[in-house]
Amino acid sequence: MFTSLKEIPILKNEPLNKYTFTKTGGPADFLAFPKSVTEVKALLEECRQNNLPWMVLGNASNLIVRDGGIRGLVIMLEKLNHIEVKGNQITSQAGAKLIDTTYVALEHHLTGFEFACGIPGSIGGAVFMNAGAYGGEIKDVFVSCEVLYPDGQIKTLSAKEMAFSYRHSAIQAQHCIVLSATFDLQVGNYDEIKAKMDELTHLRASKQPLEYPSCGSVFKRPVGHYTGPLIEQAGLKGMTIGGAQVSEKHAGFIVNINHATATDYVNLIQYIQKVIKEKFDVTLETEVRIIGEEVQ
Questions:
Q1: Angle at 102 between CA 97 and CA 105, to 5 degrees
Q2: Using an 8 Å Cβ cutoff, are 4 and 12 in contact?
Q3: What cofactor(s) does the depicted protein rely on (predicted)?
Q4: For residue 261, which phi and psi values (nearest 5 degrees)?
Q5: Among 92, 217, 247, 289, which one carries the catalytic annotation?
Q6: Closest CA to 178 of 128, 143, 132
Q7: Which stretches in the chain have pLDDT values below 50?
Q8: Active-site residue 66, yes or no?
Q9: Which of the following is catalytic: 78, 137, 146, 287?
Q10: pLDDT at position 5, please?
């Protein structure tokens, strides 16, 4: 399999804990790093011909891969990372880091993207999840994105077609790949943009447990509540299962403090959900994506 695609780096039975921000996760049967849209298309065609399942991982930052790993092909788009500026608009390929895109905006004196300066995901993942922080979301600056479908068609989707809502986009229900996205910004003052980014970077470093591996914000914010304080009020700050711990710095995060497994993470997430439901009658939904298979 993949013998006709020798130019594309493809690893076999590759441990995904080398790539996830939690440092957990089992192996992918195959892991590919395409360098162009043409190569992505070729990979999907090979999967179609061999009836092989496939999946795209972004920057694997807001993600938990179960310990059994992922069957079929995993595609990582980190080599598709070109960022281009035309006037007030920035177009970034899916594998470009969101943080890098915000700094390109800064270099061109463009404002509106400051909210994302500390979000560690890729552009593709950010669009897929409608990522946000500090009062801003991708939908606020989004113009359109190019999407590749399994049959090889590439379509341009507008903001309306994406139907963005809180941590949601329409393509979450579609088996397709974001290739690039275009964002509309405004001309601003470099020093003011930089000051705002510095402020948000400091806030993130002071409040979030960046010193440990984590998957970022674990839960969506429930209506009428803030997740971290809710978990803290339940007495769960510092709660540990295996090597996974509710962060003592910010209870909305689960950190890997001692060789945690994905199973540790999932068990701790489920325990938190159970306690919060019992104590406050609040249902916590996960923001982090949990994918892959259990260990057989």
A1: 130
A2: no
A3: FAD
A4: -105, 165
A5: 217
A6: 128
A7: none
A8: no
A9: 287
A10: 78
Q: What per-residue confidence (pLDDT) applies to 257?
A: 97
Q: Is 287 a catalytic residue?
A: yes
Does 4 qualify as catalytic in the annotation?
no
Q: Give the domains, in start order, of the chain with CATH numbers.
A: 10-76 (3.30.43.10), 83-205 (3.30.465.10), 211-291 (3.90.78.10)
CB burial class (10 A; 0-12, 13-18, 19+) of residue 89? middle
pLDDT at res. 296: 76
Q: How close are the terminal C-alpha atoms of the chain, in Å?
A: 24
Length of the chain: 296
Name the residue with tokens 């590439």: 154
pLDDT of residue 6: 77
Q: Which two tokens stand for residue 23?
A: 């440092």
Strands, DSSP E only, in 33-176?
54-57, 63-65, 70-76, 83-86, 89-93, 110-111, 132-133, 136-137, 142-148, 154-158
66, 92, 167, 180: the catalytic one is 167
Beta strands in 134-256 (DSSP E): 136-137, 142-148, 154-158, 177-184, 186-187, 214-217, 240-241, 244-246, 253-256
